[in-house]
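Below is how a single chain appears once it has passed through the pipeline. First comes the sequence as given, then the structure the pipeline wrote out for it. We keep one example in the README because the format questions we get most often are answered faster by looking than by reading.
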Amino acid sequence: MHKSAVLLQHKTLTPAVECFDWASMPKGARVVDIGGSYGDAVYIATKFPQLEYIVQDPPETLTVAQTAFMSDLSIESEIKSRVRFISSDFSQPQAAPDAYVYVVRASTHNTLDRDPGIILQNLRPALERNEKSRVVIVDTALDPPGSTSLLGEQQSSFRDSTMLRGLNANGNKLVAWKTLLGEVGMEIEPSNRPHREVPGTLTTKLKHSAPDDINELWQVRRPLMPATDERPVLIIGAGVSGLCLAQALRKVNIPFLVFERDSAIDSRPQGYRLKLREDAEVALAESLPEDVYQHFLSSCAILAVGETDFNPFTGEVTKSRPGGGLSGKLGLCPSHTVDRTILRSILTMGIEDRIHFSKQLAHHNVNREQGSVSVTFIDGERVEGRFLVGADGLHSVVRPGVLPEHKIKDTGAACVYGKTPLTTEFANRFPEKGLRWMTVVSDQAPMLQSCHIGDASVTLLTEPTRFSEESRSKYPLPEDYVYWVLIAPQARFCSDGELPVAKVGSLNQQQAAAEAARLSLAVTEEWHPSIRSVFELQDMRQATFVRIISSMPDIPAWEPSAMVTLLGDAIHPMSPCGGVGAQTAICDAASLAKTLAETHGCPTAGDIGTFEEGMRERGRRSILQSETGSRKMFGLGSLEECKPWTGY
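Resulting structure:
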């Protein structure tokens, strides 16, 4: 037990009394108070006269406690006769294996220490001896975000931060308790937690299925060390989420390295715009160093919110509405428009020396005993770190080692991304009302064809990306352009019976871009010349053909690790039809950065489990939104019925 934690102990055991059925215990039942310290046992002994009580603590603490207890004239002699003090070494087997209840208090605040696991592990034989025995843990159990009131969360966070500053200790989150107890063969039993008391009470019992090998499982509970220059946080992938995380770690001085498979930040077309909503903006403001955040704001394009829909064959407006669709901020209301390549470039500022390009990951290994993780690249280089983040996108090499059975679906659709310069010629040819804000063009199969193939929708989304003179004076920006994406079932892009993914995949980058541009023209050959001009005048070097892949909304939970996790598309790829993929990844990065900052670069499995729980829920909401858009834009049926994605 931490000696300093004694200072935080409540003078009564009110939570333990209210949350456990002491009255049902038989006369003479023995209660062992582990880390009982200064004799608070009198509280329970007074309330329940049928119980015998044993206080266990190291000799130096026990002597003072026993002297104070026995000399206290306010305690009746009958109560004193039922309370014994026994010197105990918590690293050794439990000295009183026949008790009904073992109370563990304030001995688990600092999760970097082995004490909590050792104490609980040594109690398992007692629970095996008597399956009615229970372990009552009276300690901080921080609830998951959103499960209690805002005031309750604020109070818990305040106590946690006070404990950290004053005692270099911290409270455990509920998921951390579940992880720790599971490792030693115990589980939490449902109980009453009145008014979210802090400290709270967890009643635990023997888990019917014992751990495979307690000694092997225990290795992961060895003291974990924080990230250092020698063992930094390793980020695989220099996409938006990986770079946001890197900047956030830079902000709080946690060592890190970034490894990217591409040869440079702009080595392949990724120049289409992103629309970020308020939560992504807040995440960037919280995560980025101030200078980087100001560069981000300066680089944003002029924001215009509204939608105009066109008939693809007549070039005439069919629907139009300014704003997000409803009054105020209801509906589609982004906060910023930003060029993806520019954003990635800004996110490298100040950390250029910590980003390594042309580094294709081969595999990673977790060393639980040493509390470290190593990554090996295909060029043979091996790097060791404290924590690994797989931010390496859809084709993640980290994911199979973490979630080998993760289900990803091939939606059967594809899209061509592109950019068309906003030249005078283009402005003269394209419909004027299509150059204000978002434009949507929807093409469905003719009547008789639809009887056989369904609607087979082809949808075009375009939006002008313009930069103000003020922004151009502060940051080098590209010429104004129209971003566009053409979405359709993969079969609509076929030529000569060959799926485009097979053909494009066999070409070099320049050839693949030319083929993607050709496909955009072929699919829209019946469209009105004014609409089609966006393809005819495109920058053919920027065209990219991409299959639409998606995770299922409900991502099953997995066993969290103190040494590795995933971010963004590496865990929850989604259709672009919701327009929230990058936004979700940015929020993931900010959430993980907060976890790493709060744990000083030394997270436990419980800390990461809490982060991953939030990431799964965030991903679920975004995938559902993308699924809705996919139904409208290319006729997606059910993701459940889609074929598994094979990686090609």
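Residues 605-634 form the longest helix (30 residues).

See the next section for the split statistics.
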